[in-house]
Amino acid sequence: MLRDRTAIVGIGQTRFAKHLEESEKALACRAVLAALDDAGIEPHEVDALASYTMEETDEVELAKAIGAGDVTFFSRIGFGGGGSCATVAHLAMAVATGQAEVGVAWRSRKRGSGRRPWTNTAQQLPTPAQWTRPFGLLRPADEIGMLARRYMHEYGATRDHLFNVALACRNRANQNPDAIMYERPLTREMYMDARWISEPLCLYDNCLETDGALACVVVSAERARDCRRRPVYVHSAAQGLPAQHHGMVNYWNDDPLTGPAWTAARQLWKTAEFGPEDVDVAQIYDAFTPLIPLSLEGYGFCGRGEGAAFTEGGALESGGRLPINTGGGGLSEGYVHGFNLINEGVKQLRGISTAQVPDAATCLVTAGEGVPTSALLLRV
Amino acid sequence: MDTMTAEGLLLPWPDDDGEPFWEHARSGELRIQACAECGRLRFPPRPCCPQCGSFDDEWRLMSGRGRLWSYVIAHPPLLPAYAERAPYPVALVELEEDPRIRLVGTLTNSVRRPGAPWNAVPPGRLRIGAPVQAVFQAVTPEVTVVRWALCNG
Q1: What ipTM was reported for this prediction?
Q2: Inter-chain CB proximity B90 and A142 less than 8 Å
């Protein structure tokens, strides 16, 4: 079993901005070298690499630029932001099984200054896009908006519930000088008056468009004890592709509102020594606000249909029942395919978050919901 | 093969499994792939049956009746031809024959108006559960798409 046999011992990131001058490759190298420096590990010791299939800087380019040694494990995870936590999971498995000793996971993306992926019509037409895109369901916001409308209809969720999510993330970003929305408070009036993107989703239900890169370093628990930072153990890790799931357009099964989070959660909790009630803080993938109530249900923080009500009464805020996305998340810190959620989870368990949950000892981190996903339970 | 209409709307780009759907649509028929062995309908089309594993299939004629399962109203930023039509509703319709088969499409206000503008149905008239009927619009000489007429619309 993977339980606590590996740890994240280094984290690194670049600045986040709408536009950064440097290339994605240069940003990737900066984030990786910063993470190795944080860990106190020399680049030539790196022998395992993991990233997303959408990552543009490949293993060859990264390894030779940072001065990695002989690399004996490398892995890519598909499905966009669904792969974030799986990068760490794959490294943890490689290290725990002796395939490698020092693993680096990273994501570098110029989503702020680059083109929006959905405008690339050459890539959007094959399956299953032939069934959706020609009819104007062009963007991820439209695809998730469809599920959000149904969710609101079935369970009485309202825009105020979605606002609760957006506000919690924005409030944490207002405490985080590295967040893009650090100096930009959000009010209910701003939210309710915002322009629509895909009704029922407005501007503030959508994540940011960000340039930036992040990385982290995974080693064995034994080695972690000799590193310069407090080890953050990978307690449990899971991927999830449910039966008859269809990705962002999960419209063709019995229950489209039960997504990959449910599958990942079952595996995650099966191999964990604690349950949802023991999670001190959570970093939940927030490309769109409705993913939070859906994920709260999937990961077992509440029952089916109760995710929206869970957000009431400041539950997601500091001091609430389950503080989430304490760096601001994809909605308000920066959207780097969820990798900032992993690093923020590490910061919480080191006790250095800008919105620190007192004595946080356990953290759930999730990857994109609505696509084949992954999740991590971290602990100290 | 064209990837867009003259107005700049994306055309479906069928894969091998999806091609029969579009051929039937050109004939004005809504047909869904079904297993020739166990009879289960499946969508999107695929090479074999996830229930029994058979590679034998048939394309079963649907009534075209369905209900609105959900919808969004898309606003810019969008591709240019779509931005010109925005805001427009997009429907997700569950078919009468099997509510797990849900088709995405634009809406029209009458079965007699398959070519109605995308915004022909005012958003205030949309209700989840509302009955709809498939209509067929030839968007190019080669490509016909299925749209959904709001019944009593």
Answers
A1: 0.97
A2: yes
